[in-house]
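Justification of computing resources. Each target in the renewal requires a structure prediction run like the one illustrated here; the chain below, 116 residues long, is used simply to show the kind of job we budget for.
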Amino acid sequence: MVSLIDSGTYRLVETKADTKLLIMGDNTYAWITVDDIGEILVTSNKQHRIESLLSSGQYRLYDVDDEPKLTDLLHLELEAGLGEWQGYLLLTGLPDEQKKRSRIVPTTDLVNNPDN
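Resulting structure tokens:
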């Protein structure tokens, strides 16, 4: 079963200190690469000075459970261009006030793919 949890607009920006930020609605996450772990999202409540816009568009957050062609996790899909989407698996969900960090793993699995 696939459930759409959230959708809206996002911006992927970079600060003057070269920190990438993923801004989805009212939520801001620092997107960091950690040696031996990979990429993680970290909750961020402070004001950031944005230096450049890397990407923007629509996002969709899905909960996937017991679908034969998809991994049973939260799937985040970011619009990457006209009709193009990039999928990510959120191994422990999105970070929040209790769980400050979460792994984010790129995937070719797209929930919004007619082949699934």
